[in-house]
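Protein in question reproduced for absentees:

***
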Amino acid sequence: MTSSFKLQIESVNKNCMFFYIYFIKKFCKKINLAYKYFSLPKKIKSFVFFKSPHVYKKFKEHFSVKTYKSAFFFKINKIKKTILIKLLFLYKPTTLKIKLHEKGK
């Protein structure tokens, strides 16, 4: 019985995420697994801090954090799904967040 699920990857580190995506693509190609890949829009969060506690507040420091996202869609049977999930979490870098969403539930 086949099931479909979505694997969503999120990271602040762009290079780490792209290497992990490359790993997933190569692994799926090696075991002949069909997938769809989408790059989702990045989110930018900005922060402003005052440099001095003085009254004028002219000196400000600006910081921004960029969050990159991407998604994979898989349609596989239950046995391959458990193997794939175990391997994806085994080789996951610590800077990545992975979410699994099962379709139809």
